[in-house]
Write a structure and sequence with these properties.
With 260 residues, the chain is an alpha/beta fold. The protein folds into 2 domains: 216 residues, 3-Layer(aba) Sandwich (Rossmann fold); 37 residues. It is built from 8 helices and 7 strands; from the N terminus they run βαβαβαβαβαβαααβ. It has a 7-stranded parallel sheet with strand order 3-2-1-4-5-6-7, sandwiched between helices. Helix 1 packs across helix 8, helix 3 runs parallel beside helix 4 and helix 4 packs parallel to helix 5.
């Protein structure tokens, strides 16, 4: 169904983005990876995905805070694959502090990478999607795109903005074969979250399992983490024909977090 399509997945060298990229590649989608990290590790991801799934892959080191880099990344995707059919805006960073203590430069960086980058990437891919009469734009928001938590003003503002951007994109592209939807995960067990769990366990002198339970109990009634593969599977569904008339939606994958 998706074989031969091509996708850009931002922030895809690890974590949720990598899970999404692998799920799409398994369906025969060519992948342009993006993100920071160790060059050797990134090379292994890019070449390994191509070999494992028999798809074309490429990599862009575009800085998601720089509009010109984002435009160049999209051009690379078009030049490499012939088109960009699927855009997954996943790149993001985090910083926590109360509003009065929140560094202004951190606010600016989070808004730029978590929100503005999605606007710039969407703007860049739309002309080719419209010309082909098919496109899928998937924005990875968060439970924090729907509800708030203290000390996360920039992240919550950006993710709420992503939900709004998704709706506007959907309305503007309605009837043109292009859909836009947001995925709103709760806690996803990525290497970064695992490190947070391990650090908390060490600081409190408790087991890693106890630290996991504490983290989940605060927000997620299911007491169960989502996985990058889960978010990848939902992304594949949103790209499928079954979701062709789904647009402008915000889909929670959060174990009941936002149902409370």
């Amino acid at each position: 169904m998706l074989k031969g399509k091509s996708a850009i997945v931002t922030g895809s060298t690890s974590g949720i983005g990598l899970g999404i990229a692998e799920a799409l590649a398994e369906q025969g989608v060519n992948i342009l990876f993006n993100g920071f990290g160790d060059k050797a590790a990134i090379d292994q991801v890019v070449t390994g995905t191509a070999s494992k799934f028999g798809v074309k892959t490429a990599y862009s080191a575009a800085d998601m805070s720089k509009p010109a880099d984002i435009r160049d990344m999209v051009k690379l995707g078009v030049d490499t694959f012939g088109a960009v059919d699927i855009l997954v805006n996943n790149a993001g960073i985090q910083h926590t502090a109360t509003i009065e203590d929140f560094p202004e430069e951190k606010w600016d960086a989070i808004i730029a990478i978590n929100l503005s980058s999605a606007f710039h990437a969407t703007k860049a891919v739309l002309p080719s999607m419209k010309a082909r009469g098919w496109g899928r734009i998937i924005n990875v928001a968060s439970a924090h795109g729907l509800v708030a938590s203290a000390t996360k003003s920039a992240y919550v503002a950006a993710k709420h903005g992503i939900v709004g951007l998704t709706k506007v994109t959907a309305l503007e592209q309605a009837g043109k074969g292009i859909t836009a939807n947001a995925i709103c995960p709760g806690w996803v067990l990525t290497p970064l979250v695992q490190k947070q769990i391990d650090d908390n366990a060490k600081a409190k002198g408790i087991s890693a399992q106890q630290a996991k339970e504490e983290l989940l109990a605060a927000k997620e009634p299911s007491m169960h983490f989502s996985t990058p593969a889960d978010i990848g599977a939902l992304t594949v569904f949103l790209c499928s024909d079954a979701a062709a008339n789904m647009t402008g939606t915000s889909l929670s994958h959060d174990g009941g977090w936002t149902a409370q």
